[in-house]
Amino acid sequence: MEFKLRGAEKKDIDILFQIHKDAYEFNVAKIWGWDDDLQSNMFRKSVVLENVQVIIIRERPVGYIDIDHRGDFIFIRSIAIISDYRSKGIGGQVIQDIIEISEKQGMPVHLQVMKINEARKLYDRLGFKVYDETETHYKLKREPVVS
């Protein structure tokens, strides 16, 4: 499916939270419960718009990726795609593009995923390996290929 990325702007914050809610509410609610006001406040306090790319299909925001360059590795803080557009290869392509950048820079890519999140299968297919875990999350890393 064809999509484009654009930098997030302050005017996007409400739609970004709605995308976040659509993507994460199901799993978060299973572990901790979902409080809309609490989640909205936490999201708005933690998001750094300069690190966020909005995923656009037919001029409609359908997802986002939040990436933090941490010196010696790239950290995918979050990737979220609304349910109507999941399992269509979009997330995989967005992450594959990040992997290609990391390969050129010789840097690993890190992320974490809730243990109950089905997205773990995608990360496995893309070559991510578990290097640590918490009670609720796996911490994954994909090392650059050395040739």
Task: Using the CA coordinates, give the radius of gyration.
Answer: 15 Å
What is the molecular shape?
globular
Number of domains: 1
Number of helices: 4
CATH first level: which class? Alpha Beta
Per the CATH scheme, the topology name is Aminopeptidase
* Oligomeric assembly: single chain
Mean pLDDT: 94
Q: Classify the helix fraction into a percent range.
A: 25-40%
* Major β-sheet profile: 7 strands, mixed
Describe the overall structure.
This protein has a seven-stranded mixed sheet. The chain has four helices and seven strands. The chain has one domain (4-142): Gcn5-related N-acetyltransferase (GNAT) (Aminopeptidase). The mean pLDDT is 94. The chain is globular and about 45 Å long. With 147 residues, the protein is an alpha+beta fold. Helix 1 (13-31) packs across helix 2. Helix 3 (90-105) links the parallel strand 4 and strand 5 (109-114).
Describe how the helices and strands are arranged:
Blueprint: E1 4-7, H1 13-31, H2 36-46, E2 52-57, E3 60-69, E4 74-81, H3 90-105, E5 109-114, H4 120-125, E6 129-133, E7 137-142
Parallel strand pairs: 4-5
Antiparallel strand pairs: 1-2, 2-3, 3-4, 5-7, 6-7
Offer a few descriptive terms.
globular, Aminopeptidase, alpha+beta, 147 residues, seven-stranded mixed beta sheet
Short account of what is shown:
The chain has 147 residues and is of the alpha+beta class. 35% of the residues lie in helices and 31% in strands.
